[in-house]
Amino acid sequence: MGRSLAQLAIATCVTLAAAACSSADGAEPTGEVTPGTPGGPGGGPKDDPLQPVKPPPATCTMRTDAPLTVEEQRLVNRLPGAQAPFAEELLKGTGFDVFEPEFSTALCKDGVAGASSVEEAKKLVTDAGARLWRAAVDRVQGRRPSGTLPAGDDRMLYWARLTMTKTLRAWEPSFAMTAAERGDIEWELERASRGQYDVQLPAGPNYVRILISGFDPFTLGAPGSVDNVSIRIGNPSGAAALAYDGLEIPLPGGKVAHIETFILPVNYGPFERGMQEDTLGPWFKPGPSRVDISITMSQGSGYRFKLEEYNGRFHGEFEGNDDVSTCKRVGGASLLPSTDGCNIHPPARWVGYDSLPWRQNQPPQFVESTLPVDKMIAANTGAQVPRPPDSLASAGNAFDVVWGYDYDIFADCSQPTTQSLYDPVSTTYPPPGNPQPPAATVCARSGSGGDYLSNESAYRATLLRDALGLTIPVGHIHTPVMTRFLPGNDALLTDSKYEAYRTAIVQQGRLLVESVAKSL
User: Fold this and answer.
1) Among residues of the chain, what percentage have pLDDT more than 70?
2) CA-CA distance, 214 to 376, in Å (whole number)?
3) How confident is residue 377, by pLDDT bands cut at 50, 70 and 90?
4) From edge to edge, which strands make up the β-sheet containing 304-308?
5) Which of 29, 57, 344, 488 is the most exposed place for a label (fewest CB within 10 A)?
């Protein structure tokens, strides 16, 4: 219904070898085709009046005045005495200076946009983010030799991503796009470039499936600084994630541990949006590829691995890489457990309830680790790794491994007074004094892993475990500090000491993960 007489005539016209059918406008067919016309030699496809005409590709421009995020403003930061920005030098040194120009061309080439709709743009940036992630993994694992810096470096992923987010926000395609839709496009780039869409756990009873998250570098200094060594900080948990992704480890009894990894940002906003749960959740659900072990990793302090036991719901005032903190004192008032912005709020779509308004025990104040701490410490992993220079670990160890059973509380949840328990933790296991878990009546001020995003990642993962009814090992590993340089090397991107610490941390961390897999 609704076709014109001309369309009906065309639709019923059948060409036979010995017969001809008049066209709808009465013209007689000649059997000849003019070169260059649709359907003829050199011409385009024959028009189908029943199909919609594809619109011309969108046009585009690239803004030169797009405002930069706080993180992007650090792209110009320089090390002391350096002539070029640190990010520029690092990306050149790793061969990752190619990704932003390729991405820019994919977005807008000669005024023609690489996407003509929001959905096409999402696919374009997702594909670009996935290529960046795979390239980072491949470089660290030796499959992508590029640049002159050692292969194990994690920092190029963070800085290359920032050059791409900067370019993406400068992109002005001609098709209509709301601010929310633009934000969704940027979100896809973030998630894809962090490996969050790359997770693929194998099915079957012969595998022990392991998910590990790491973090971006953080505490990078003030934007625009030209003499601050903080800009060269890396994150050993990020280096570990790139080194472990896809790794398979044979286990006693014939099973194989298969590891998949991803990276989390050091910003509160993505956590509040549910980035971590949306990455872990599909693999926490029942199915043949359901995860068997989930570990969050981050950089801690000193010369030790700390296995954090109690993950607290409260997060503190320290800012993220975007200089944003959601936990704030209003008018100098003291912080309370119920202070707005100081609590972790898991997404209702994963835990089954809305955690707002504040309630004391929904979600719980503390959630415990289920990692096999005793077996991890007994594995004596520190003795199996070359000791890096100047390590202050106990004799014979690269780094010590300790149980983190300390935590801070509000003993009265209506009062600002806090109490710290079991700090510092013992270096022996089991520790003396029979330490006790937090009482059911108290409120969390700090977990064993602190009150920053390390603790938050551990809290969210262990809470998700409980919400979905899993009884698997889930918990947090704090690594030693990695960024240590020899005296006088403030202007260098790396040196032998930095490389030794990264290598040792990644190696010992892998042995700790392996000890968890062997415990099943």
Assistant:
1) 90
2) 19
3) very high
4) 248-250, 256-264, 207-215, 293-299, 474-479, 304-308, 400-404
5) 488
DSSP for 419-430, written as a single string: EEES-SPPSSSS
- Angstrom distance (rounded) from CA 67 to CA 389: 43
Give 275's pLDDT tier (boundaries 50, 70, 90). very high
Query: Residue 9 pLDDT more than 60?
Result: no
Please state, in angstroms and rounded to a whole number, the distance separating the CA atoms of residues 353 and 367: 17
What pTM does this model have? 0.89
Q: What is the DSSP letter of 394?
A: S
Dihedral sign computed on CA atoms, order 59, 135, 126, 454? negative
Q: Mean pLDDT for the chain?
A: 92
| Residues making up the chain, counted from first to last | 520
Q: How far is CA 465 from the centre of its chain?
A: 19
Q: Tell me how far apart the alpha carbons of residues 135 and 96 are, in angstroms, rounded to a whole number.
A: 9
**Number of alpha carbons in the 13 Å side-chain half-sphere of residue 247:** 24
The residues with which 450 forms a beta bridge, in sequence order, are: 447
Residue with the two structure tokens 């640049």? 147
pLDDT digits (tens, 9 = 90+) for 300-359: 999 999 999 999 999 999 999 999 999 999 888 899 999 999 999 999 999 999 999 999
Q: How big is the CA angle at 104 (ends 216 and 55), to the nearest 5 degrees?
A: 125
The tokens for 42 are: 């050199």
Q: Which helix (H) or strand (E) holds 476?
A: strand 474-479
